[in-house]
Target: ATP-binding cassette subfamily C protein CydC
Amino acid sequence: MSWWRLLGAVARPAAGRLTVAVLAGVAAAGAGVGLMATAAWLISRAALHPPVLHLMVAIVAVRAFGISRGVLRYAERLIGHDAALRVLGALRVRLYTRLERLAPAGLAEYRRADLVQRMVGDVDAVLDLLTRVVLPYAVAAVVGAGSVGLVGFLCPPAGVVLALGLLGVGLLVPLLQAATARRADGRFAPLRGELATDAVDLLHGLPDLVAYGAADAQLARLAATDARLRAAQRRSSASTGTSAAVSALATGLCVVAGLAAGAVAVRAGTLPGELLAVVVLTPLAVFEAAAGLPAAAQRYAAARGSLRRLADVCAAPDPVAEPDQPAEVPAGPHTLRVSGVSAAWVPGRPVVHGVDLELSPGRRVALVGASGSGKSTVAALLVRWLDPCAGRITLDGVDLRRIPGDQVRRVVGYLPEDAYLFDTTIEENLRIGRRDATVAQLRAALADARLLDWVDGLPLGLDTPVGEHGMALSGGQRRRLALARALLADFSILVLDEPTEHLDEATAAALTRDLLAAARDRAVLLITHRTDGLSDVDEVIRLGAVPTPVAA
Ligand SMILES: Nc1ncnc2c1ncn2[C@@H]1O[C@H](COP(=O)(O)OP(=O)(O)OP(=O)(O)O)[C@@H](O)[C@H]1O
Model:
């Protein structure tokens, strides 16, 4: 998807508001030009001492233009920002929805900090694009054309001078600026993404970097990226400064040239003397409206770089293809059957081969194997984050490829090894599983995960904050809380990925026992490194080996 298509798609619902903002901007700038023209005429005319009644219309017009200019400018800002913020919101939702669809397999090539930079900084660039590029250019184009018409009507040569000056400031200077600074402006967004990634890497890895004495090298890398960003900013600022100077010069030249053309016209008798000031001073107000155009052109280049990065994410291919004609998820109880399945993250390089397993209500299956043997890949297949490259997975006889991923994930719940706990209360973390759960249901899930006594003993109970990444809890408590959340969501089939990783033997054995008991009549696939303590499961499947029935 190209960046302008993306912008068009998210901006369409706000097109009406944007148009009103442009109209208010045109009216405000028009009032500015009208104020200057009327005031110029009024001063010239007043110098001839006419009866004051002859000046009344102009006096009232000056007042009306002066007051309405401020009011209209306020309206333009208000409506323009309202429209742009709506577009921003729509773009953020679109990007988030896309990330949701891509995660996790489709995001492998992106760094997290860079994605955050895209979500925040690059999306914000759209605000700049609409309020500081589109609006000023639209307003300057309309007001410029109108003013050239007015001045040209009074004194054609002065109109030509004004038209040339406006073309110079609005088109020529931005084009020259783009030629000198386009590369620098377009590099801002990627360089900011790189800088964010380096900074987050440094912060996360700081203890290891300090322990190995490698912090200086990482800092040097960060400094080098920062230096490249500063160099780009310096180049861009130099070109902005030059453009501002050239624009000011062009404005001055236009006024002088307009004065010369007007004076010639007055001498030739084609322009009444009191209109000379109108011809000379009106361009000042028009150039005020056009003065921001070179900076707008620069912002355009930077915003285009940001939008391209967003369009890249939106155009990234889906890791799994959603069905054209989706099948209904059959009513429970559910049975998931995996037959001769192979899977690859990279096409042509399968990492699991010929896996068979069945998860029917109440059945517990353990999936064991060495690190890297593909256990988590099997989990990804079951929740349809990945489709098999050979073999078949069915849910109650329906091929999983025919069921939309979201619906599969309503039946099959995945509890990853590092289930994320949000930096909020125990209750809010549980409610991710089921938003509308009653307190009794929350307590029941905690009881099933053997966490209720501990929560009841806390001074704040369910309102206890868990800290960033659940750091205020022990490793075992974190996993039990994540399990309670999964139980609350009431999936028919639960895939538990290394739930006892990094726990001591006794805690791990107790947790495994508890979670298998808590799953009750649900089907459970327990992925684990540990081969001991699996006496409670019905079958142990060793990846790459023949399945070993443990109990009937
Ligand atoms: N999102 C991904 N993109 C690309 N390759 C991946 C992805 N996830 C896993 N792999 C690759 O698939 C292979 C199997 O990895 P997987 O995580 O399934 O193994 P595992 O048995 O769960 O390992 P561990 O026990 O260490 O967690 C590895 O070679 C890994 O590099």
Observations:
- Residues 545-552 have pLDDT under 50 and may be disordered.
- Residues 351 and 372 are 8 Å apart (CA to CA).
- Residues 104-105, 108, 345, 351, 369, 371-377 surround adenosine-5'-triphosphate (CB under 6 Å).
